[in-house]
Amino acid sequence: MAGESELAESGLIGVEVAYALPERQTLLRLKVPVGTTAEQAVQRSGLLERYPELDLSASKLGVFAKVVPPQRELREGDRVEIYRPLLADPKAVRQKRAEEGKKLKKGGG
Fold first, then answer.
1. Local structure of 15: helix, strand or coil
2. Contact (Cβ atoms closer than 8 angstroms) between residue 16 and residue 80
3. Chain Cα centroid distance, residue 48
4. CATH architecture for segment(s) 4-105
5. Burial call 88-108: b when 16+ CB within 10 Å, e when fewer
6. What is the rounded average pLDDT of the residues 102-107?
7. What percent of the chain has pLDDT over 70?
């Protein structure tokens, strides 16, 4: 594989695009033109064709676990992550668990 400086000189940078489902994870390495955005990298990766249920308009994107706007330009070595929407609000789940725990302590469960 070409070194970082060789890629930069050719107008390309190396990035990764990651998408995880509960049962499997896909991580793809790409060479993209300098100036490519996070959204463009996802489109170029082929993941939208591989996972037709993936709705990019309803998903957030991140770079190394930090949410970024889709138009953020990528740098050499960036990893774009596609985040699936949450199925349940974590705050509501914790509150429900706490309420159930109170019922058990009072003998109501």
1. strand
2. yes
3. 13
4. Roll (3.10)
5. eeeeeeeeeeeeeeeeeeeee
6. 66
7. 78
